[in-house]
Write a structure and sequence with these properties.
Elements: E1 3-6, E2 20-23, H1 28-38, H2 42-46, E3 57-61, E4 64-65, E5 81-86
Parallel strand pairs: 1-5
Antiparallel strand pairs: 1-2, 3-4, 3-5
Protein name: Thiamine biosynthesis protein ThiS
Pfam family, one: ThiS
């Protein structure tokens, strides 16, 4: 099952500069584990040690914030699109 993952500029050093990569998994957590096998170090930038999403990382599944779905346990389907966005703060 192929899922497109859009990578923000700040994380592209893990994907050799790629703006988007393909991954597989039945849940968001499985997808991140799959990405880690091909792009070492990316998972720890997205997920806390306890398995929850990092506070300052926003993840969208087909334009829906996964925090309002099932978080890291959100189910995925063939053809889904996942967008990773770092939270931005300013003053």
């Amino acid at each position: 099952m192929a899922i497109e993952v859009r990578i923000p500029t700040i994380l592209r050093s893990y994907t050799d500069g790629a703006k988007a990569v393909q991954g597989t998994g039945g849940t968001l957590g499985e997808l991140f584990a799959d990405l880690e096998t091909r792009h070492p170090g990316i998972r720890e930038r997205l997920v806390e040690e306890d398995g929850d999403l990092r506070r300052f990382v926003n993840v969208y599944l087909n334009d829906e914030d996964v925090r309002f779905l099932d978080g890291i346990s959100t189910g995925l389907s063939e053809g889904d699109s996942v967008t990773i966005l770092p939270a931005v703060a300013g003053g």
